[in-house]
Description:
The complex is a heterodimer. Chain A contains five helices and ten strands.
Amino acid sequence: MQKLGDFKLPHFFNYPPYFTLQPVRDTREKQVQLWKDLILDYCRTQKIFVIGLEEEDFALFSNPVIERSLSHEARAAFLSALVSEGRAEWLDKGHRKCLILWHRVQDWADIIFRFVKDNGLEDSVMTVEEIRSGIESRGTELHGIDRTILMRALRVLEQKGKLAIFKGTSADDEGVKFSMEPF
Amino acid sequence: MRRRPGIGGLQTAAAARDQYRLVGENVAKIRTDMMKEQLATFRSQLEEFARKHKNDIRKNPAFRSQFHEMCAKVGVDPLASNKGFWAELLGIGDFYYELGVQIVEICLATRPHNGGLINLQELCILLRQRKSDREAVSEDDCLRAISKLKVLGSGFEVISVGKKKLVRSVPTELNKDHNEILELAQAQGFVTVEEVERRLSWTSGRAIDALDTLLDEGLAMLDDGHRDGKHRYWFPCISSNSTPVADT
């Protein structure tokens, strides 16, 4: 089986017609489904949060072994399908950059909640940056999380009264005060 | 009997024909009786054989196939009924029943990819992956199981395209034009419009029509990504996609 680094590629990735947006509706639906799953899977394992449509460095968009590449239209179609499903969001009006939610925002909120509990941080204060790159985050899914997504998840928890977000001393230095009851 | 002219002659001829017929029927009856007796003997010997070699029949596909042929020669169908002597003796009614169920499952599972047409070889490979290694499955077994499925009216059929056999699990009827395209596609797993026109001596319209229908039925997929710019029509039922396919 072909691999991209450590990632095992599914069989359809080596079948040329899957790189052409299919004209027949039923066939296209199945194609889109396969690609959606592949994109989410790949992004999750590689910790990719943003996909640029025009960029050449998102490996899934082409397969040099069979000499096929997804057209711009195809890439847009698959990503739009993810957006419709709530698993992605366009970051710009021109639909050139796409934020990938291989965990939904609510799932990230749950992960942060568990993270706080696991590390006994129920009463602490942390900077946003520390949450995503501090020592405690190492080895967890939070490590290296996209800042935009992190802020969204934090706001979800803020809505529920689990924490408070505040601005720090410098312009983009935000912090969080957790107020979750310990067990 | 000497032929006599006139009505009398005709009556004699008719009577003679009747006599011949009676004799003929008698002879036929004697022959039939003898045959029936022979068959009965053969059948009981076959049953004895089946009893003795029950395990071999279950475990060995080649042996099983030859056993079936023997049975067919004497007009015995071990699969005719799930109950009854043969099924109980060999339990192979169950074997084919289970096989049939698995075949249906595999066809349904692969339908999104191949449009309801699957290569018999590929089907067998997938079947072997599912089954425990206790009982091997041959193409012959598959064909028998599928013929049983047909009797149930499940819409399953085996069609021959060139040298290959394809198992069809959807009501889509393939006409001769479609068949010819599938046969052409066996070489590389795909065809181009130009190739169809050239090799089959068709008009462009006829080629495109047939290919479009195959696309619509989900049996073909379009590929426009080759650097030569020519559209290719791939047939998942022809190419097994467990090996990477590349053409330059």
